[in-house]
Design a protein that fits this description.
Length: 604
């Protein structure tokens, strides 16, 4: 258990306090803070009484209860050297340490000393945070459990649901679960993002693996098609080779010299025949010339007339007989010549026919020779083609063997991808398991989880404390909270009511009962107890005389049981008569507040 005893506060140039320091010691008992405003005759308001509450709050949290801007915190008359010093003792397990906070503005500084040693952190914010952890409090809890100001703090019952929950967490020391929930949510979101990343990675690897599988299949199909093409080409080439080999054998049997010999013989014979034909033609021409000459003679010999046309002599029978004989001789000669010419014609025809036949044979032999030469040339082409096809077949066989042994590399890639996929799946499963654990933890530290469980455990105590103080306040209602701190208020007639259905005084009773109950629970549950509490204008608000008496009884009871320093800020003169401890009397003159001795009139 940690006990925090506030010892004193020293104020200078803070709000209405001026250059002359105001020191307030926190002594056990009911202490009254009051004063007089000399700037306004017979007025006790605006003296600077609330400055005491603001100074303690400022020393701890670095701001005021009214959340003033820093420029407005510094005294507007002196406008410099704003300093608040707070002294307190922290006792943990019987070991005490003295702390001293010095917080100032213009310039802004915050110093923290422990047993005289400077333990100030590296920044004002970090020093403030350290002080809050040291005191186990938050601004909201401090305002509602240590310093209750009527004008500046919203009563618990009037707070919004979220604000209530936050305040309760501070009272019951449950903010650790909210911090845990925030941390778990952050971890949950982080792990969720990791899961999304791993799932995206898994999907990417799966897609790549599917793509590799498809590529492997495509490569296998291409390989199969290529293999079939190679085999088909090899088969075609083999058939062509077989055909070429047969053709080559045929060409090898061709006897080209025979054709050349036959042509040479024909070349020897044909000229002789040509010469014989020429001789026959010449002889025939001679015979024809003789025939033509004799015909001419025959035509010139003799006449049908009795007188010779040449000599004009008379032709007798002898002459005529001689002429006929000559003509007969010429006819006989012409006939013989014609027979010889006919014989020569027959020979010429025979010779010419023979020559044509020989020429035809020669042409045939030349054609065969040309064909043979072509075939011989074709043989060279065949041999070249055979060599080419053989070489191509060797290449195709090599290609087939290479293709058959070809390793596309997909097996290794797919093996690696499958290993990565399996590893990623293991990671995903682990992340899902972590996520499931975090989900459980998130529920445990959520409002419905452990906090609800803990609140249920202490709720009976709190409700009993609240009922206790409502009874002491002579309240006309009962207020019960559930584990979510949703209140249920029942009036004296047994009807459910809202907090705002009650009058100001009735609401004040509920507020004070809640305050005292929270202070008790804070002491029991929060592992910290303060010796100090302050109430601003507690007796000056909506409480009647009986209400004030009941509140004073409660305060005195708390002072007796907990040895507390209770400070009540009041502008009522008669409030000083209630003090069992000090009367802190403040006086404001020329806009500056100082502490003065309590006038005799206020002591009577």
């Amino acid at each position: 258990m940690k006990y925090v005893n506030f010892n004193k506060v020293i104020i200078r140039n803070f709000l209405s306090v001026g250059e002359e320091p105001v020191q307030v010691e926190f002594n056990t008992g009911l202490n009254i803070i009051t004063g007089n405003n000399k700037d306004k005759v017979d007025r006790r308001n605006g003296v600077g009484k609330s400055t005491i509450a603001d100074s303690v709050y400022f020393a701890i949290f670095g701001t005021t209860l009214r959340e003033l801007k820093k420029d407005h915190i510094i005294n507007n008359v002196t406008q410099r050297d704003c300093v608040v010093e707070l002294y307190f003792t922290v006792n943990v397990d019987g070991k005490s340490s003295e702390y001293h906070i010095i917080r100032q503005l213009a310039p802004s500084k915050c110093k923290l000393y422990k047993d005289g040693e400077d333990i100030t952190r590296d920044s004002i914010a970090n020093t403030t945070e350290y002080v809050c952890k040291l005191l186990n409090t938050t601004p909201d809890v401090f305002q509602n459990c240590v310093i209750m100001t009527i004008n500046n703090a919203t009563p618990f019952m009037a707070k919004k649901k979220l604000e209530k929950r936050k305040f309760i967490e501070g009272i019951f020391n449950l903010q650790v679960f909210s911090d845990m929930l925030i941390s778990v949510r952050q971890d949950f979101n982080k792990v969720t993002r990791e899961l999304d990343i791993e799932c995206a990675k898994y999907e990417e690897i799966s897609n790549n693996l599917a793509a590799y599988t498809e590529q492997q299949q495509n490569a296998a199909n291409i390989k199969l098609r290529s293999m079939n093409k190679f085999k088909a080409r090899l088969e075609t080439n083999k058939k062509e080779l077989e055909s070429l080999e047969l053709e080559k054998e045929k060409v090898d049997k061709i006897d080209i010299e025979k054709y050349q010999s036959n042509i040479a013989k024909l070349n020897d014979v044909i000229p002789t025949i040509d010469q014989g034909i020429q001789e026959i033609i010449t002889k025939k021409s001679e015979y024809q010339t003789l025939i033509d000459v004799n015909k001419s003679k025959h035509n010139k010999i003799g006449t049908d007339k009795d007188t010779c046309p040449v000599c004009l002599s008379t032709l007798d029978d002898n002459h005529k007989h001689f002429i006929h004989e000559e003509k007969d001789k010429l006819i006989d000669l012409i006939s013989k010549l014609k027979k010889k010419a006919t014989t020569l014609e027959s020979k010429l025809t025979e010779k010419q026919t023979l020559r044509s036949e020989l020429r035809a044979k020669k042409t045939q032999q030349k054609d065969k020779l040309s064909d043979a030469k072509l075939q011989i040339q074709n043989l060279a082409n065949i041999r070249q083609r055979i060599e080419q096809l053989s070489s191509l077949n060797d290449d195709i066989v090599d290609d087939i063997e290479s293709l058959d042994k070809q390793d596309e590399g997909f097996d290794q890639i797919m093996k690696e991808s499958e290993a990565r996929l399996e590893k990623t799946q293991v990671g995903i499963n682990k992340i899902k398991a972590d996520l499931a654990k975090l989900d459980i933890i998130k529920f445990i530290v959520s409002e419905e989880g452990v906090k609800s469980y803990i609140v249920k455990k202490i709720l009976q105590l709190f409700n009993s404390k609240l009922a206790h103080y409502l009874k002491k306040m002579d309240s006309n209602c009962i207020c019960i909270f559930n584990e979510y701190f949703e209140e249920e208020i029942v009036d004296e007639k047994g009807k459910l009511c809202s907090y705002f259905n009650f009058s100001g005084a009735e609401r004040k009773n509920i507020d004070l009962a809640c305050l005292f109950a929270f202070m008790d629970i804070r002491r029991v549950q929060g592992d910290v107890a303060f010796n100090f509490s302050m109430y601003d204008e507690l007796f000056d608000s909506s409480l009647d005389e009986r209400g004030v008496e009941l509140v004073i009884d409660i305060l005195k009871e708390r002072i007796e049981h907990h040895n507390e320093c209770v400070m009540v800020i009041s502008h009522r003169k008669e409030s000083t008569k209630l003090a069992t401890g000090e009367i802190i009397f403040l006086e404001k003159q020329n806009g500056v507040t100082t502490r003065v001795a309590t006038p005799e009139t206020d002591l009577k």
